[in-house]
Amino acid sequence: MTHNITIHTPEEIEAMRRIGRQASELLDFITPYVKAGVTTKYLDDLMDEYTIKHLGAVSACKGYQPEGMTPYPCSTCISVNHVICHGIPSEKKVLKKGDIVNIDITITKDGFFGDNSRMFIVGKPTIAGKRIVDAAFGCMWAGIEAVKPGNCFNDIGIACQNFCAPLGVSIVHEYGGHGIGRVFHGEPHVCHVPIKTPTATFEPGMIFTVEPMVNAGKRHILDLADGWTVVTKDKSLSAQWELEVLVTETGYDILTVSKDSPEPPEWVKGWKKPSFD
Ligand code: MF3
Ligand code: CO
Ligand code: CO
Fold it and tell me: Of ligand 1's atoms, which has the minimum distance to the CA of residue 115?
């Protein structure tokens, strides 16, 4: 199948490794601050300062305005509990014990973009919170493991669906992963559920995100009046992890990796986290 997906040069891939590692380091940095009693705006301010002063980069989210949307007002997205994605940091949103928190950051430097997100649990995890956070993590990795020569993008959606179905959790249909490189959101749109239209076959040099949003209840979403925040229609918990994947000759590599980024599940065969000593 013909496609418009960028095949990155070795130089571009090195630049994407650098910005990807920095995007992951930003999440390493914020980890110890995700505690009960802090506001999500406080976390956003800390990350904005770290991005500029320590990474020499800027947020790609601040002022980001896809067609038909209002400009995104903050540097990061922080989505708590039943918020699926695009939670706007606020002075009024105070984290409390047991909350599950997605922090999604995209930074840019020298014309390249780095995008990743992780889940955090505030204080002692609840059983329901840990369950959905772990389900979303496994779902993301199941999708990533489908990236191999001969497979196509639809195999990601099939793998995500096969992982989630037996757990009784659901995958959001309205949002997907995306190509990334010299653009924030490029082709292809990566569906985390199977689709019927043909999808491109993986080719070395493609770079895209895998970032399934997984709900404890039903998959349906509700858009809030602030123009950005997306919540579960049934108010059930929702979780999401995001990594950037590079297609290689033999399989895949992860570009958003750093010293404190989590190890993959033990059943992952295609990738080992490098050491950062
Ligand atoms: N980082 C998100 C993604 O994974 C996009 C956030 S756009 C924003 O694609 F404007 F809400 F920040
Ligand atoms: Co993101
Ligand atoms: Co993304």
Answer: 1
